[in-house]
Amino acid sequence: MTQTIRYPEILEIARRDGKVTVEHLSEHFGVTLQTIRRDLADLAEAGRLERVHGGAVLPSGTVNIGYEERRRLNARGKIAMARACAAHIPEDCAVFLNIGTSTEAVAAELMHHRNLLVVTNNMNVANILSQNPDCKVIVTGGTLRQSDGGLIGDITTAAIRQFKFDIGVIGCSAIDTDGDILDFDVQEVGVSQAILNRSHRKMLVADHSKFQRTAPARIASLGDIDVFFTDHPVSRDLADQCEAWATQVVVERSEG
C-alpha cells in the first residue's frame, strides 16, 4: 500500500479514535514501524496531525473541528460515557443538557427515563427527546448556531436563569492539564457557566480527545464539577487533584 492510499485512512482513524499509535497503524497496514513514523511525520509537516509520544493526534488550535467530524470522532467512547451518565440521572427530575455531540449521546440514553423535565439549548437534543413520551422538553430560545443546532446568546442565558435544575450536564471543547474546562465560543461559555450556576448537581461528559486539544475560553474547573464522565483514565496528577476537589471521575471504556 502506498503512502497516498494510507494517509486518508490514517486521518480517518485519528478522527474516529482521537489519536493514532505507531504500533497499531503498523499492524493495521502491515508495514514497519519506521514506515508509519515517516507517514506521521509527513502528515504532521502538512498540518494534518500533531505528533505525540508513540503516535499522533488531531491538531489543536483556536478553531473547532466541524460538527459532523465531531459526531464521528470516538463515537463508541461517547456512547459508553453517555450510558454511564444516564445511569446517574434518576427519573422524576429536572435536567439541563447543553450543546455538543456528547450531550446528544446522553439524550439518546435517556429515551426510557420517565417523568423527566429536560431544558436544553441544543435543537438536536430536543429532537431526540421529543420521541420520549415521558419527557417534557423545554427549548431555551436564543440565536441559532446553524453549524450544530446550538442556541446561544443573552436570550439563552436569561432563559436558563429562570430555572433551578436538579442536574446540569455540559460538554466542552478541551480540558487543560490543570483541570480547566475550555471552549471556543465565548457566548457558549457564558451559557455553560449559567447552567452550572443553576444546577444542584453538575456533570461533565468529555472523552479523552479533549485532553489532546486546546481552546481559548475558560468555562470552569473540574473542581466545580461533581461528576466527570470520560472514556480513558486521566493522568495520575489530575486524578489526585480531582480527589482533592471531591470531583468523582467515572471512566467508562467503549467495547471493542
From TrEMBL:
It comes from the Bacteria. It comes from Jannaschia helgolandensis. The lineage of its organism: Bacteria, Pseudomonadati, Pseudomonadota, Alphaproteobacteria, Rhodobacterales. Keywords: Repressor, Transcription, Transcription regulation. The keyword Endoplasmic reticulum does not apply. Pfam families: DeoRC, HTH_DeoR. This is Transcriptional regulator, DeoR family. Residues 3-58 form the HTH deoR-type domain. PANTHER family: GLYCEROL-3-PHOSPHATE REGULON REPRESSOR, HTH-TYPE TRANSCRIPTIONAL REGULATOR SRLR-RELATED. GO terms for molecular function: DNA-binding transcription factor activity. SUPFAM superfamilies: NagB/RpiA/CoA transferase-like, Winged helix' DNA-binding domain.
